[in-house]
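@channel sequence for tomorrow's demo:
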Amino acid sequence: MVKGIGVDVVAVSRMREWLKDEYLVQRYFAPVEREAIYERKDGAALSLAARFAAKEAFAKALGTGFRGFHMREVWVVNDGMGKPELHVTGGAQQALHRMGANHVLVSLTHEQEHAIAMVVIEG
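structure tokens (generated this afternoon):
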């Protein structure tokens, strides 16, 4: 059963600016995400934008925004085949449990200047 759906779009140019400020990247992204982002070199801003959009889409799917947890408690990594997987911990995980959720799906896409994420929460 679908418990929530969220979608978000992020301008890649915004993330290019964030890459110049390590504080912003550390504030909003988990260590595992930062590793993956910096490995992409020229594609770092695209990757950052897609992951940021996923965090926002997750908060929208919850229906609560980021109340009770921090963005770093939500992160996206790719499996061995490249499929993105959204992981949560701490307050974000508690928010999922409160809504009776047991599964999160994420889809990411990007073009030259925009990244979009869609999150579906199931329970």
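heads up for whoever presents: The two ends are 5 Å apart (CA to CA).
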